[in-house]
Structure formats: C-alpha cells, structure tokens
C-alpha cells in the first residue's frame, strides 16, 4: 500500500494542471470526430469519442444521447419475468406508436384512430388501456367500437382542434416520459438489467423492484440533482475514463479526477471554457489570455479591476517568474552567514 501511495505522490510545486491538460489533450487528438453507435435495431445509441469528451467538458445541460442502466434489487435481478414487468413500466409508448393510421375531421372535431393489434401486443398493452388513457384527457369524448377509437373534441376553432389532435397522437400510453427505448440485457453473472435511450432518474427510482442505489445515468446534471455534487464529480471522471478507454487509449485517472474536481469544486458543474472556469478566473490577464481579450480588458478598465499576478497564466503573459516548480522556492540567508561568506572572500 505504501508503494502504491508513493507512485501517486506529487512533489510540492509540480504543475499538475498542465500535466493533466497535456495527458488528456494529446490522446484527444487521436479520437474519432464522429458519433458512433453499434449497428442493429436492438442497440441503444450513444455519443462516443471526441464529441462525448467535448460534451462533458463543455458541461452541456442536455446530452445528445442520454442513457441509463437500471439494476434490479437482489431478490429479483435473475428473474426475467419480473424484470420484464418492470421494463413495461419504463419505456415510453406514445399513441402514435400503437396505431396503423388515423383519420381526422376538423369540421366536426373528430379523430378516428386505428389501433394495431401487432403493435399493441409488442408493448403488451390492449385497446382498453389505450381508451382509458385517452379518456383521462379533459374536453373530449372517447368511444371504442370494432377496433376503431373515436375521439370527439370540444371546440370550434380549427387551429385549436388541430393542435389537440397532434397532442393526442403524442400522448404517452405507458412508460416514463423521456425514455424512448428500453432493452432488457443480462450480465456475465446471469443478472438482468435494463438499458435505456433517454434518462429520467427521478421517475425510475419510484418503481418497485429497482435498486435505487445502482441506477446509472450518463447525464451529470441529472445525477447532481438526484444524488449531489460528489456523485456528479465521480460520474464526470468515470465517463471521461470510459470514453477514452473505448478508443483504445489510456490516461491516468489522476488527471481525469483533477479535471472533474476543477469542474465541480464550487458546488455546481461548470464548463472549462469561457463561460465557466476560464471565464471566471480572478486574474484579468488570465481571462484575457484565453478568449475575448478586448472584452475583458475593456470591462477591467471600466470597473477598475486590479490584478495581483498571483497565478500562472498572467505571469507567463508579462514574462514574470511563475510560482511553479523552482519558481516556488525562495532562498534566504541570515546576516551573520552573509558576513561569514564575505569574510571568507
């Protein structure tokens, strides 16, 4: 254990930030500049490679491909039927997904739906469930006869009726809002779990049988809202590590965790760029050296800002010694020793 600690020990004054930036940036130039997903209909599309790295460090509020892994409680995780019953409650199924077609009459405000038995069976629901869900809507009369669902909308304006029709077709029959696809998968130990395209942790943890402590989402902001900033920090570091490893590259976790710390140490998730860490530096010169140089100097002059030149970037900019490495060391000598030295000359 002591040897392991020595491997990760850092000398005082070492430029850990620059080393981390170099260690992450150089492999980043070798990553593919495209979104990749596994082929086949039974896969969950995810953003990978450099686009995913950029998405994380830019702290984008909505990931392009949010995903979740939902694990079951120990008692049912190897029971396929029970896991499948939970799957039915997860994937969002819209009215438009279970019909073969529809007819609309804007003059009378009538919408005729033609439910598909094959599609209803695929999602393990029936026509009664569809009718019951639509009947919960206010301002309309829903009837069912011989495989046709007839909806009469109250209203006179054609635009209002048309908007209501569109909203009806996009009404969820079952499932959780935001989860467009869900798949039951099995790990090497024989335990079943659910992977999703789309993320909604707040609703998923309410389902009986779901292990609340093992619900995983790749959305740092959602994780922060549910479990706090420490969980979000761990997720950012883990997602960076996984994304880089998938490209066949290797970066020490120390550098990735340092980046995650820098993004979250204030208690919220901040991007690395000019709208986050770099744009909020105390030093005027440090902010101006990154982007929007004229804006930062103009604002600094208008508001009378003072730069105490305590950081690295600003001292490099003006050619002053930086406080890193030997630049942190200040040698002093007592007057008595100085006299001895002069006397020996």
Describe this structure in words.
It is a single chain. The chain contains 15 helices and 10 strands. Strand 8 and strand 9 form a beta hairpin. Helix 2 packs across helix 11 and helix 3 packs antiparallel against helix 10. It is α+β, with helices and mostly antiparallel strands and 345 residues long. About 2% of the residues have low confidence. It is elongated. The chain has 4 domains: 101 residues, PTS-regulatory domain, PRD (Orthogonal Bundle); 61 residues; 82 residues, Gyrase A, domain 2 (2-Layer Sandwich), CATH 3.30.1360.140; 48 residues, DNA polymerase, domain 1 (Orthogonal Bundle). The strands form 3 sheets. The protein has a 4-stranded antiparallel β-sheet. The chain has a 4-stranded antiparallel β-sheet with strand order 3-4-6-5. The longest helix is centred in the C-terminal third of the chain and has 18 residues.
Which structural class best describes the helix and strand composition? alpha+beta
CATH architecture of the largest domain: Orthogonal Bundle
Number of helices: 15
Number of separate structural domains: 4
Would you list the SSEs in sequence order as H and E?
HHHEHEEEHHEEHEEEHEHHHHHHH
Helix content: 40-55%
Shape: elongated
Mean pLDDT comes to 83
How far apart are the termini? 51 Å
Biggest beta-sheet profile: 4 strands, antiparallel
The Rg value, from CA coordinates, equals 29 Å
**What amount of the residues lies in strands?**
5-15%
In the sheet with the most strands, the strands line up as: 8-9-1-10
CATH class of the largest domain: Mainly Alpha
Question: In terms of per-residue confidence, which ranges show pLDDT below 50 for 5 or more consecutive residues?
Answer: 35-42
């Amino acid at each position: 254990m002591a040897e392991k600690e020595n491997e990760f020990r850092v000398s005082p004054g070492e430029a850990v930030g620059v080393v981390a930036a170099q260690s992450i940036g150089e492999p980043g130039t070798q990553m593919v500049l495209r979104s990749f997903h596994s082929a086949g209909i039974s896969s969950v599309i995810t953003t990978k490679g450099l686009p995913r790295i950029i998405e994380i460090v830019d702290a984008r509020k909505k990931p392009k491909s949010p995903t979740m892994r939902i694990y079951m409680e120990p008692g049912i995780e190897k029971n396929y039927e029970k896991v499948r019953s939970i799957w039915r409650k997860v994937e969002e199924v819209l009215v438009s997904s279970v019909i073969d077609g529809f007819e609309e009459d804007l003059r009378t405000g009538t919408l005729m739906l033609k439910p598909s038995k094959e599609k209803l069976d695929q999602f393990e629901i029936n026509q009664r469930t569809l009718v019951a869900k639509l009947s919960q809507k206010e301002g309309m009369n829903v009837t069912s006869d011989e495989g046709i669902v007839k909806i009469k909308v109250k209203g006179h304006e054609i635009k209002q009726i048309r908007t209501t029709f569109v909203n009806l077709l996009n009404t969820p029959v079952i499932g959780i809002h935001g989860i467009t696809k869900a798949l039951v998968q099995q790990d090497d130990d024989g335990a079943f779990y659910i992977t999703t395209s789309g993320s909604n942790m707040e609703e998923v943890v309410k389902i009986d049988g779901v292990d609340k402590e093992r619900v995983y989402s790749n959305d740092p902001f959602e994780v922060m809202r549910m479990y706090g900033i420490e969980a979000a920090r761990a997720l950012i570091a883990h997602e960076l590590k996984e994304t880089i490893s998938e490209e066949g590259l290797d970066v020490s976790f120390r550098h990735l965790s340092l980046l995650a710390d820098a993004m979250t140490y204030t208690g919220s998730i901040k991007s690395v760029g000019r709208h986050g860490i770099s744009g909020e530096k105390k030093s005027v010169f440090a902010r101006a050296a990154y982007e929007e140089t004229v804006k930062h100097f103009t604002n600094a002059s208008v508001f009378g800002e003072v730069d105490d030149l305590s950081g690295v970037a600003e001292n490099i900019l003006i050619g002053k010694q930086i406080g890193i490495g030997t630049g942190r060391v200040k040698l002093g000598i007592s007057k008595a020793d100085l006299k001895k030295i002069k006397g020996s000359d």
